Amino acid sequence: MKNVTDSFVSLGHWPSAGSFGFNTDILSTNLINLSVVLGVLIFFGKGVCASCSLSDLLDNRKQRILNTIRNSEELQGGAIEQLEKARARLRKAELEADQFRVNGYSEIEREKLNLINSTSNTLEQLENYKNETIQFEQQKTINQVRQRVFQQALQGALGTLNSCLNNELHLRTISENIGMLGSMKEITD
């Protein structure tokens, strides 16, 4: 390390340098800068690729960048295609959902109308059955009343006949009825 610092210190003692300052000669400073850069590139470039030149390295880098861009564009195209497919599936699913919703509502309305009609028919049948039952019971009651009235009238008539008929009238009525039956028998023969 002492040798390196000695070499910089000794630069200030060069007889041609004179004093410390800026070198304004552009050509000589550019040549020095270019030679330092080329030396560094050659020195460090040998370790990277002994048979490669700088243009080959740049071409390889350019190809990798182009391949990366191409791959990215292909991936982007695939992603866009998948996005469009997903959007199409979404639209289809939304349409199907709307259709199911509409069909569901119409099915509900149809079932509601069927239930109302069925209930109305059932109520109408029950009303008819009720009316038939009422008419049957009324007819049954009327027949019972008629039968009782007829029995009472018959009992009253028998009571009146029994009280009014004497033996002679009773025998004459029986004889006349037998005569009527006999004449009816002759007509049918």
TrEMBL record:
<feature type="coiled-coil region">
    <location>
        <begin position="76"/>
        <end position="103"/>
    </location>
</feature>
<keyword id="KW-0175">Coiled coil</keyword>
<keyword id="KW-0934">Plastid</keyword>
<dbReference type="GO" id="GO:0045259">
    <property type="term" value="C:proton-transporting ATP synthase complex"/>
</dbReference>
<keyword id="KW-0812">Transmembrane</keyword>
<keyword id="KW-0406">Ion transport</keyword>
<dbReference type="GO" id="GO:0046933">
    <property type="term" value="F:proton-transporting ATP synthase activity, rotational mechanism"/>
</dbReference>
<keyword id="KW-1133">Transmembrane helix</keyword>
<keyword id="KW-0150">Chloroplast</keyword>
<protein>
    <recommendedName>
        <fullName>ATP synthase subunit b, chloroplastic</fullName>
    </recommendedName>
</protein>
<comment type="function">
    <text>F(1)F(0) ATP synthase produces ATP from ADP in the presence of a proton or sodium gradient. F-type ATPases consist of two structural domains, F(1) containing the extramembraneous catalytic core and F(0) containing the membrane proton channel, linked together by a central stalk and a peripheral stalk. During catalysis, ATP synthesis in the catalytic domain of F(1) is coupled via a rotary mechanism of the central stalk subunits to proton translocation.</text>
</comment>
<keyword id="KW-0813">Transport</keyword>
<comment type="function">
    <text>Component of the F(0) channel, it forms part of the peripheral stalk, linking F(1) to F(0).</text>
</comment>
<comment type="similarity">
    <text>Belongs to the ATPase B chain family.</text>
</comment>
<keyword id="KW-0793">Thylakoid</keyword>
<feature type="transmembrane region" description="Helical">
    <location>
        <begin position="31"/>
        <end position="54"/>
    </location>
</feature>
<keyword id="KW-0138">CF(0)</keyword>
<dbReference type="InterPro" id="IPR002146">
    <property type="entry name" value="ATP_synth_b/b'su_bac/chlpt"/>
</dbReference>
<keyword id="KW-0066">ATP synthesis</keyword>
<keyword id="KW-0375">Hydrogen ion transport</keyword>
<dbReference type="GO" id="GO:0009535">
    <property type="term" value="C:chloroplast thylakoid membrane"/>
</dbReference>
<dbReference type="Pfam" id="PF00430">
    <property type="entry name" value="ATP-synt_B"/>
</dbReference>
<keyword id="KW-0472">Membrane</keyword>
<comment type="subunit">
    <text>F-type ATPases have 2 components, F(1) - the catalytic core - and F(0) - the membrane proton channel. F(1) has five subunits: alpha(3), beta(3), gamma(1), delta(1), epsilon(1). F(0) has four main subunits: a(1), b(1), b'(1) and c(10-14). The alpha and beta chains form an alternating ring which encloses part of the gamma chain. F(1) is attached to F(0) by a central stalk formed by the gamma and epsilon chains, while a peripheral stalk is formed by the delta, b and b' chains.</text>
</comment>
